[in-house]
Every structure is written in structure tokens, then in C-alpha cells.
Amino acid sequence: MNQGEHQARLRALRVRIRDGDADAFGELFDAYARSVYNHAYRLTGDWSAAEDAVSLTFLEAWRLRGRVDEDGGSLRPWLLGVATNVTRNARRATRRHAAAVARLPRDETVADFADEVAERIDDKEQLALVRKALNALRRPEREVLALCVWSGLGYAAAAEALGIPVGTVRSRLSRARTKLAKHMEPPAGRGQMRDDRTTAVRPIREGNR
Asked: In angstroms, rounded to a whole number, what is the distance separating the alpha carbons of residues 74 and 176?
């Protein structure tokens, strides 16, 4: 398929999406559900939350379908932007719920299964180091990192997804990388992490159809 045919196909898909074609949304889901899931997981660190985000993202995309322009490239940046907003809203709702639960009287201790899950992960120390590094980032920095580094979007596509200027994407990504480099230093007495640190932030290209 040459470039002209590819652009014509994308335009036709955008028109069908905007017009509420259910089959077109099925094509959209098949093409990008995995990318949306991966992006949501990187933002939340939770498999279940990421699965919920996929469903909510495509429901929200259906609601917002009228905003899709006829002209443009891949719809992947748009979907990842929707997914980013969905995870933000879900995070706020979770915080409100946690605050409400914290105000309730506690008659018994609820078991925490986090340790059980962590035991199944081979390299727990490396995982803890990565989590600590990511937690050091502000939310906007994590979002830009997830889009540009892990989902492989360019600066312009990430700016489109988040609705911010390209310069803001560049500055947030620069700050995120600086913070990660600082917080990914190995624990005292362990000198084998340099190669692992590089792997932890290496771009994972998922395609940009």
C-alpha cells in the first residue's frame, strides 16, 4: 500500500468513526486495544485498573467520536490521550474512595495481598527500584514518559494526545529522564544495575498505524 492509499484509508476510517460506524470502532479496538492497555498499565501499575481503563477509553472515544476530524493520521495518539484522561479520573475516584474508607471505623484488619503478588516476580529488588523511580515523577511527567518513551509517540503526537504545546512535552520528558537517572541508582554495595537501568527506560515501540 503506497502513501496515498494509506492516507485515504485513514481518512475513510476517521469519517466512519465520526459517523458512529460500529464496525469501524471494532477495527479501532482490534488495532489499538493493546497499546491502550499497555499505556494505562504504565500509568497505573495495576493490571486490573489497566483492563478497566481499556473499556472506559473506548466508551469515552465513542462519546467523543464527533470531535474526530476527517483529515489526520493515525488515531492512536487520540486514543492514548483519551486513556490518559480516563486514568486521571479513575485515580481521583480511587483517592476519594480511599479517603472515605479511611474515615470508617475499623473492626478488623484486611489482608494485604501485595506481598503475595510481589513474591511471584523474579527480580523484586529491581521492580522496587523502578517503582520508586516512577513514584518520584509528577503525574504530568509520568504521562509524557509513558507516551514518548514506552508508547513510542513523537513529541508532536504526544502533544496532540495531551492537548499541550510540543515545548511542554520536551521539557517534561527532560525532567522525567533526569529524575529517573537520579533515582535509578543502585542500592549501596550493589554495582550491577547500570545495564538494567538502561533497559528500564528503553522505548518499547508498539507501532503507529
From this structure: 26
Contact 147, 80 (CB under 8 A): yes
User: Which cell is 14 given?
Assistant: 476517521
- In 3-state terms, what secondary structure has residue 2? coil
- Residue 75, C-alpha cell as written in the block: 488515531
Could you tell me which of 34, 76, 82 has the C-alpha nearest to residue 60? 82
In the DSSP assignment, the letter for residue 137 is S
Distance CA 59, CA 178 (A): 36
Mean pLDDT by 10 residues, the chain (209 residues): 80 90 91 93 87 90 89 89 89 59 48 44 55 79 85 86 90 85 59 38 45
Q: Which three cell numbers stand for residue 105?
A: 471505623
CB 169 within 8 A of CB 148: yes
Amino acid at 119: E
| Number of CB atoms found within 10 A of residue 69's CB | 10
Model-wide pTM > 0.70: no
**CB-CB contact of 44 with 91 (8 Å):** yes
Neighbours of 197 (CB within 10 A): 19
Give 188's contacts (C-beta < 8 A, 6+ positions apart).
none
Q: What DSSP character marks residue 66?
A: G
